[in-house]
Amino acid sequence: xxxxxxxxxWFCTGSQDLYGDECLKNVARHSRIIVEELNxxxxxxxxxxxxxxxITNELIRRTFNEANTDEECAGVITWMHTFSxxxxxxxxxxxxxxxxxxxxxxxxxxxxxxxxxxxFMNENQAAHGDRExxxxxxxxxxxxxxxxxxxxxxKVQERIASWMRTAIGVIESSHVRVMRVADNMRNVAVTxxxxxxxxxxFGWEVDTYPVNEIAEAVAAVSESDTNALxxxxxxxxxxxxxxxxxxxxxRHVAVQAQIEIGFERFLEEKNxxxxxxxxxxxxxxxxxxxxxxxxxxxxxxxxxxxGDWKVAAMVRIMKLMTAGMRDAKGTSMLEDYTYxxxxxxxxxxxxxxxEICPSIAEGPISIKCQPLSMxxxxxxxxxxxxxxxxxxxATSLIDLGTRFRLIINxxxxxxxxxxxxxxxxxxxxxxxxxxxxxxAEAWILAGGAHHTAFxxxxxSEQMVDWxxxxxxxxxxxxxxxxxxxxxxxLKWNAAVY
Length: 497
Fold this sequence. Notes:
Number of helices: 15
Largest sheet: 6 strands, antiparallel, barrel
Helix content: 25-40%
Strand content: 15-25%
Distance between the termini: 38 Å
Number of strands: 19
């Protein structure tokens, strides 16, 4: 499955013709150099494309509309090298529909104290021009990212790179289609939500299919294809028989191989990028999809359990935002299970029945085949592992009835104190920031769900930027959170939204 298109970002420089052709030549030369150096830096995940200097209403409007229709353009970076009268930007900005970054920089890093004169001042006045441009964008109420600093500064480049990944999440959101196999778990609140409003806000298409329609696609998978994939499993993972008959164990594993192939073919044929299942409605499926779903998540598909389509879509988006990232540590659906409340060792054990993505694994990944009390089917095969240590973010998108809220908790993943030999599922163990007690209380106060879309590789800033671009509320629980301030923030947000 191709995860991300060959996206590019346009670099648009603003100016005007008040200072003559020589000035405009320098503006163009300077912006070309910036683009070339940004692309050579090795920091940005996507190519920056230089565009001719924008000095008229017509050219600005045409450029922004060309960006709208160019399928490879994921966003525009703007910079006012000199003074650019902001009313010239109004029509273009009104019609622009993609992510926008305002790079507040200038070509020179240091004031040339010995030679500076009025010609230099007139030509190099981003401190002047960017404020004029920033004013009109604010007056128009247009959401954008502002990054300030010299373009050669690695920290500035890293902030641009981070925004680029957020922009991909914004652009790709409108391409997310979630396939619901059966419905939500009965009487559960957090997996529900307004699918029409989600399509209006995020662009998501959320459709339901009878479970037996996809079960037919699974049954159509040939024995040879099934056996070939099962062989791949046996080559790639540790096999933990734990006293089970090897032939019977292989048969159970082969069921998951058949499900993986059948599900993936169905998803590709119908053009879906995320899927939800429900253990209470498995139709003709022989097992609850476990290992099969874990493998599909690793390939980039989103997943949500018990019909949780919001989590499935968010996992898909977050995987796209991290696609191609160097040294990525992984993204997965997770669920809060149980606490460790021993002083100095506090944390939350994260897991799920079966479907945790192996992209977050550290160390050996094993296949186990164990009974499952839910689902009323034969013992499903699943991948079992422990997750990596390190910081990450857990997110929960909830529907409050009148609006969506994205809750983001910064967490620190740790090793569990002791092994858990009788727990046959993949696990992660983390302590939420600022600590378990404040973090859990704030999560509850915000209405966070027990299912999360988790990533080691994204930051709370990126997810807040994504929420801002989508026009929804976001709250962050981090090292600075206090319950008093957090409750006030929720009250203020209620007034705003």
